[in-house]
Amino acid sequence: MDCRRLHPILPLLALGLMVVALIGVPTRAAAAQPGMGMERPAAAHPAWLGPPPSASGPLEQRLANWPAWSLPAPLPRPERGDLVWPAWFRGEWEVSSTPAEGSEPPLRWRARFQADGEDGALADRAFNAAQIGAALLGDGLISVRNDPANPNRQVTLLRGDRQLESTVVGRRSTRPDAAAFLADELTLQVLHGPDTPRISRVEVLGLWHRLEDGSISGEQWQASYASPAAGLAASAEHTQRFTIRLVPLQPGFDPAS
After folding, report:
1. Is the CB of residue 202 less than 8 Å from the CB of residue 225?
2. E strands, the chain, where?
3. Which residue, among 114, 112, 160, 157, has the nearest Cα to 133 in the 3D structure?
4. Preceding amide of 78 cis, omega within 30
5. Which of these, 153, 182, 154, 169, lies nearest to 85 by C-alpha position?
6. Are 137 and 25 in contact (CB under 8 A)?
7. Hey, is 230 helix, strand or coil?
C-alpha cells in the first residue's frame, strides 16, 4: 500500500476505547476489504444499542450532524487528566467491533479499565491499544507505550521503521443518564517513517449503554481530516461507523477463540 495516501484502513484502539484510525498502515483485514474507510450511507439505529440521545447538547448535536462533520469541532482542549469513563466500565472485557454497514465477522480483542475514584474508570490505554493493534496488524505491531508526562499522548512502534504518535487535542464527554455515556475526542496523528511524516486529525464520537445483563453496547462514529498545516478549518475526508459490544471477560477465556 502507498503510505503517502492519508487513508484510514481500519481502526486502532489507540487511546482507551476511542477508535483512532491508522494512517496508511496495512492491516490483516485491509486486503480483504479494499473499500474500508470510504463514506457509507447511514444505517438504521439498532435497537440493542439503546435509544439515540436527543439533540440538546453540543455532543448530541454533533452526532445528529454526522457524517457532515467539519472542523473546528465543539471540543475544548483536554486538561492534563485522562478521559474518565463511568464506573460500570471497570474490569476486563471481551470486545467485538463490526463496521455498521459491513458484512465481515467482528474483530475481537480484550480491554480493561481501572477504578478512578468512587464513580469513574480509566482505560488501560497501552494494554488496550496493544490488544487491538495485535488483532489488526499481527506482527506488524512492535509495541505501544504511554507518554508518562502526558496521559493524552501515546506512541506506537510499527514494523518497517515506522512510529505513530497519537495526541488527544480536543475532548468532551457527558452522561445523558445513569446507564449512558457519550464522549468525543479529536486526535492529532503523526506517522513517522522513511519518508516525510504524515499528519492527520481523527475525530471519534462514541455512545455507550450499560445493559441489564452487565454487558455494554456501543456505537462509534469516526471521521478523518487533513493535516492542520492545510488550515484549522476542514471538512471530513473519510467517515466510518462501528457497532461495538463489551462482554465481561470470564477467567481463562481466550478472545482469539
Report:
1. yes
2. 8-15, 18-23, 70-71, 85-86, 91-99, 107-116, 120-123, 141-147, 150-158, 162-177, 180-192, 198-210, 216-225, 234-235, 238-248
3. 157
4. no
5. 182
6. yes
7. helix
State residue 104 phi and psi, 5-degree precision: -75, 155
Whether residue 106 contacts residue 98, with contact meaning beta carbons closer than 8 Å, is answered with yes
Q: Is the CA virtual torsion 121, 91, 168, 44 positive or negative? A: negative
Amino acid at 211: L
Report the C-alpha gap between 99 and 242 in whole angstroms. 4
SS3 state at 89: helix
Give Cα 215 to chain centroid, integer Å: 19
- For strand 70-71 and strand 180-192, is the pairing parallel, antiparallel, or unpaired? unpaired
Taking only the tens of pLDDT, the chain with its 257 residues reads: 333 322 333 334 333 444 444 444 445 544 444 333 333 334 444 444 555 555 579 999 999 999 999 999 999 999 888 999 999 999 999 999 888 776 678 888 899 999 998 889 999 988 988 888 888 888 888 988 888 888 899 888 888 888 989 899 999 999 999 999 999 999 999 999 888 898 999 999 999 999 999 999 999 999 999 999 989 999 999 998 989 999 998 654 454 44
Start-to-end Cα distance in the chain: 29
Buried b (16+ CB within 10 A) or exposed e, 146-159: beeeebbbbbbebe
